[in-house]
């Protein structure tokens, strides 16, 4: 059998199971793995620019196409907003650094003093790329020994031991992983409800809407708490307050509608960190007012 694997490879540390991205929606992890796998393995030159190991030159369009998936024969693409939020989250967590790439300055138009630079892509730098892609950093306490000596031989011995056991089914040990017991699930659900209550009460206090559907608002907020950080939802409320404080209460969003769940009605998303600056520059019609 040919042992050569085309296009090379990259490593992901097991500690990722305990990291924040593991509890985020699947698209976060998919984009993260794509970035690591697409980053330069060595220094290179592209388009007249020099890029170092662990750096990647891409675009929002490329990221969207690369992270699409099929469902019931439909080709589903992530939205620009989803990708922007994910990249901003990765930057916030210190996992990447990203900045737009622009062309060299050019003189244009009748005004000879005017300068324009066209957007040509997005440069992403994977933080600590060298640390996580150096296999020697995974050697542990038996530093200096070959990886086969550290792990694979132990696996071989374990197989030999189990092979000597008479034909008897070994009982699988009970799982002690978090979230597997009914008690843990119940505790998580209780915490989620408590967080939803605090967010709902904060919305009522800050926005003072003319109408409020408490039950539906709670259900919607609990749903979003499975995918969003509570602090981000609080920030969205604060941002919305800056544009709604001068309006009559009857024109302020019901919390159930602010955290709407139907496609196209997720109003709070426009006020999430990283999105609100773009919203401020829109016209009232684009706000949905």
Give a structural overview.
The chain is α+β, with helices and mostly antiparallel strands. It folds into 2 domains: 14-135; 182-287, no CATH class. It is 42% helix and 12% strand. The protein is built from 11 helices and 9 strands. The chain has helices spanning 26-38, 60-66, 80-92, 129-133, 147-163, 182-207, 214-225, 230-244, 255-258, 276-280, 284-287; strands spanning 44-46, 49-51, 55-58, 69-71, 74-76, 96-102, 106-107, 115-116, 119-126. The strands form 4 sheets. It has a 3-stranded antiparallel sheet with strand order 3-9-6. A hairpin with a 7-residue loop joins strand 7 and strand 8 (115-116). The longest helix is centred in the last third of the chain and has 26 residues, at 182-207. The model is unreliable at 146-165 and 278-289 (pLDDT under 50).
Total separate domains: 2
Uncertain runs: 146-165, 278-289
Biggest sheet statistics? 3 strands, antiparallel
Can you tell me the overall shape?
A: globular
* Broad structural category: alpha+beta
Oligomerization status of the protein chains? single chain
Q: What is the number of E strands?
A: 9
> Please, how many helices?
11
Along the chain, the helix and strand elements come as HEEEHEEHEEEEHHHHHHHH
The largest beta-sheet arranges its strands as: 3-9-6
Walk me through the topology.
Elements lengths: L25 H13 L5 E3 L2 E3 L3 E4 L1 H7 L2 E3 L2 E3 L3 H13 L3 E7 L3 E2 L7 E2 L2 E8 L2 H5 L13 H17 L18 H26 L6 H12 L4 H15 L10 H4 L17 H5 L3 H4 L2
Antiparallel strand pairs: 1-2, 3-9, 4-5, 6-9, 7-8
């Amino acid at each position: 059998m040919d042992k050569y694997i085309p296009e090379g490879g990259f490593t992901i540390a097991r500690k990722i199971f305990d990291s924040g991205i593991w509890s985020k929606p699947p698209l976060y992890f998919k984009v993260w793995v794509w970035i690591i796998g697409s980053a330069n393995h060595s220094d290179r030159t592209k388009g007249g620019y020099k890029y170092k190991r662990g750096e990647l030159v891409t675009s929002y369009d490329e990221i969207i196409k690369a992270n699409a998936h099929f469902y019931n024969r439909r080709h589903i693409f992530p939205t620009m907003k989803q990708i922007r939020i994910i990249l901003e989250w990765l930057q916030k967590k210190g996992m990447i650094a990203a900045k737009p790439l622009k062309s060299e300055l050019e003189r244009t138009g009748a005004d000879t003093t005017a300068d324009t630079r066209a957007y040509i892509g997005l440069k992403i730098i994977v933080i600590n790329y060298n640390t996580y892609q150096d296999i020697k950093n995974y050697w542990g306490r038996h530093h200096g020994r070959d990886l086969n000596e550290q792990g694979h031989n132990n696996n071989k011995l374990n197989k030999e031991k189990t092979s000597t056991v008479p034909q008897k089914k070994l009982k699988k040990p009970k799982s002690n992983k978090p979230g597997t017991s009914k008690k843990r699930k119940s505790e998580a659900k209780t915490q989620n409800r408590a967080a939803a209550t605090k967010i709902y009460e904060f919305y009522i206090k800050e926005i003072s809407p003319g109408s409020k559907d408490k039950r539906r608002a709670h259900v919607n907020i609990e749903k979003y708490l499975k995918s969003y950080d509570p602090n981000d939802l609080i920030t969205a409320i604060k941002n919305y307050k800056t544009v709604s404080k001068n309006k009559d209460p009857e024109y302020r969003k019901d919390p159930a509608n602010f955290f709407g769940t139907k496609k196209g009605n997720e109003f709070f998303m426009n006020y999430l960190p990283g999105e609100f600056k773009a919203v401020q520059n829109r016209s009232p019609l684009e706000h949905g007012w």
